[in-house]
Automatic annotation (TrEMBL):
Keywords assigned by UniProt, alphabetized: Hydrolase
Organism, as annotated: Flagellimonas flava
Signal peptide location: none
Protein name: Acetyl esterase/lipase
Pfam families cross-referenced by the UniProt entry: BD-FAE
Superkingdom: Bacteria
GO terms assigned for molecular function: hydrolase activity
Domain BD-FAE-like: from-to ranges: 49-240
């Protein structure tokens, strides 16, 4: 029996440290992992003939820490499934406000659309995902309407999102700030608020952008999470249900902010594959 890791070694080409954006003297980078045939000689790999479903992944870390390298294991199930993966870095709150981080994630998504032909990605099957703060960014990137993006960033989303995979992400920033009750952390989140916190929190909360036009959303959340209360996901999916949006909430009993067992993760991914057929 062929080991699945060896199949990945055979079938996936890694194209790393690609700059998708330069801002304030900083080069923001992403890595592309794409199904291919390894040739053993120049040009070393050959992309598959069929366009590939693609996941764009935003790491977690409370918007203040983490990077794309630290979350590489989170994307392996998608590679094993035969998808391409774009693993993204974005500016943290020490470098910008939350609007800046959200804009970076939008720019990375648009980069995928602009380079879909080059890497043989299927523009009709581009999904966004992330965990915790990365889940928040994935939700916003896929859910914000074009009018809001033009207002906040003077740009629009040029790459359509086929679905969102949210791992215990923040959906209501105002409620999360109250729950955390951390003044120093709140100060970082409040950057860009212009002194109007409530309005600021609404503009950066995915739950503010629930409409019948948002893409299908599946969320995974432990019901004992003490970092991001499971109610954040429950309320989002209640509103999605009200508008008839395709959605699913997978509750992992007794689990906190991740830390799921191998068996639980297997079930979560089975639910993801079924949700997106």
């Amino acid at each position: 029996m062929v080991h699945p890791i060896h199949k990945l070694q055979e079938e996936i080409t890694s194209l790393c440290n690609i700059t998708y954006k330069s801002v304030d003297g900083r080069q923001l980078q992403l890595d592309v992992f794409v199904p291919s045939k390894k040739l053993g000689e120049e040009p070393w790999h050959e992309l598959l003939e069929r366009p590939t479903p693609t996941l764009v992944y935003y790491h977690g870390g409370g918007w203040v820490e983490g990077d794309r390298f630290s979350r590489f294991l989170e994307v392996l199930p998608y590679l094993e499934k035969g998808w391409a993966v774009i693993n993204v870095d974005y500016r943290l709150l020490q470098e910008t406000d939350l609007f800046g981080g959200i804009e970076d994630c939008l720019d990375a998504l648009n980069w995928v659309g602009e380079h879909a032909v080059e890497y043989n990605l299927d523009p009709a099957q581009v999904y966004v995902s992330g965990e915790s703060a990365g889940g928040h960014l994935a939700l916003l990137t896929g859910m914000m309407n074009q009018e809001s993006m033009r207002e906040l960033f003077a740009k629009k989303r040029t790459q359509k999102v086929a679905g969102i995979i949210n791992w215990f992400g923040i959906t209501d920033v105002g409620k999360a700030v109250d729950f955390w009750n951390d003044p120093e952390y709140t100060r970082l989140i409040d950057q860009g608020s212009k002194g109007i916190a409530d309005s600021h929190y609404k503009r950066i909360s995915p739950i503010s952008y629930v409409t019948e036009d948002v893409p299908p959303i599946i969320s995974i959340h432990g019901d004992a999470d003490i970092n991001v209360d499971v109610g954040q996901s429950s309320e989002l999916h209640r509103k999605l249900d009200q508008l008839g949006v395709k959605n699913q909430l997978v509750i992992v009993p007794g689990k906190k902010h991740g830390g799921f067992s191998a068996e639980e993760l297997t079930d979560c991914y089975d639910q993801i594959w079924k949700f997106f057929n």
